[in-house]
Amino acid sequence: MIALNLKPILFLSLLLLGLLIVGAVTAVSRYRRQKQTGLAVITSANLRQQLEAAPFGLLIFDHKQTLLYQNQAANRLLTGEPLAVLLQDVAQADGRTTADGRTMAHTRTLTLPEEQTLSWWLCPLENGALVWVEDLSAQRRLEKSTQLFLNSLSHELRTPLTAVLAHIELLRAPDLPDAIRENSLNQIHQETNRMARLVQDLLTLSRLETAGPLAARPIDLALLVESVVSDFILIAEEKEMLVSLQVESALPPVLADPDRLRQVFINVLDNAVKYGRAADKITIQLTHTPPHVSVLIQDSGPGIPAHHLPQIASPLYRARTDVPGSGLGLAIAAEIVRQHGGDLQISSSTEGETGTAVTFRLPTQMGE
Ligand code: ADP
């Protein structure tokens, strides 16, 4: 018979059981702690990955207001003053409950210098707090520019409307001399034309912004520009202005939507002629700068004062009001160039003979 010594086996079994129980208790209590703060939910690798890439900030605090988790957006958005204000909110939110014991969420919108606006929703949990942060800066900027646009639009429409109403009143007068009647009718005609042009340009801009993808195809840019220039030659000659087109030899075709691109040249040339003076020159240069074709439209006109330049292509922005216009020509041109992947640049000088230069680049076929 083999004599079994059970003592060491029993001792080892008890030790193993003890270790198992301690391990299980630790795991359960850690799980409970995480569950109480909501952290257990994001231990999933996939969810954590999604949250790290989320466009909103997410933070989780424990009951001692210690930060347990923050995603990348929260890390980026909350520094300096916003972080200090948020930590104060978290401290004050601790234990805030309604009469029936439910936790009370708290929201705050913070407007910071440099047009930054942050908003957060803070929800106290049983054992900590959850914070959701959103960056509202772009939305606020859009609201502000829409407001400015509507203000300018009301102003642009009110001026001709007031003139039209005044002339209609005048026309009611009995025994009005023919010359005055004729003048009033002319003024009404001019002002209604101005409003019709403004509405037409607004429609063009709005259609462009909502239009589908470009109908881009390889086109001969020199031919397109020649045909636009020929439409302006007579008006330019009437003003004794000189228009010249310089095309680099063997210019490759550009990938563009010809109808939309034509509008860019019309708008820019129209300005050069409209604001130009007798004997001023307009030069259009097309050069191959692989993988683009670069366009320069330079005039020797009166130029645009430097303080207007940063906003000159904003819708309805006008540096001169003594010449008829809608303030939408450059905005339309800039939008079309943007749709072709380019950027319309405007530089200008009111001194010397350099005048205004408009430049942009267009992609060539197959990136030649
Ligand atoms: P507008 O209908 O007023 O011409 P644009 O958007 O085409 O509107 O131009 C905006 C402003 O830029 C104009 O009001 C004008 O003051 C200025 N501008 C544009 N092009 C020229 C130019 N070639 N020479 C002088 N001023 C110009």
Name of the CATH homologous superfamily of the largest domain = Histidine kinase-like ATPase, C-terminal domain
CATH topology of the largest domain: Heat Shock Protein 90
Mean pLDDT: 88
Listed once per kind, the bound small molecules are: adenosine-5'-diphosphate
Can you summarize the main beta sheet?
5 strands, antiparallel
Overview of the molecule:
This protein has 3 domains: 57-135, Beta-Lactamase; 139-210, Helix Hairpins (Orthogonal Bundle), CATH 1.10.287; 217-367, Heat Shock Protein 90 (2-Layer Sandwich). Helix content is 48%, strand content 21%. The protein has 9 helices and 12 strands. It has helices spanning 6-37, 45-52, 72-77, 80-93, 137-172, 178-210, 221-238, 258-275, 329-339; strands at residues 57-62, 67-70, 106-112, 116-125, 128-135, 217-219, 242-247, 254-256, 281-289, 292-299, 345-348, 356-363. Strand 9 (281-289) and strand 10 form a beta hairpin. Helix 7 runs parallel beside helix 8. The protein is elongated, with a radius of gyration of 35 Å. It binds adenosine-5'-diphosphate. Residues 267, 271-272, 275, 299, 301-302, 304, 312, 318-320, 325-331, 356 line the site of adenosine-5'-diphosphate.
How would you describe this structure in keywords?
368 residues, Beta-Lactamase, 5-stranded mixed beta sheet, Helix Hairpins, binds adenosine-5'-diphosphate, 3 domains, alpha+beta, Heat Shock Protein 90, 9 helices
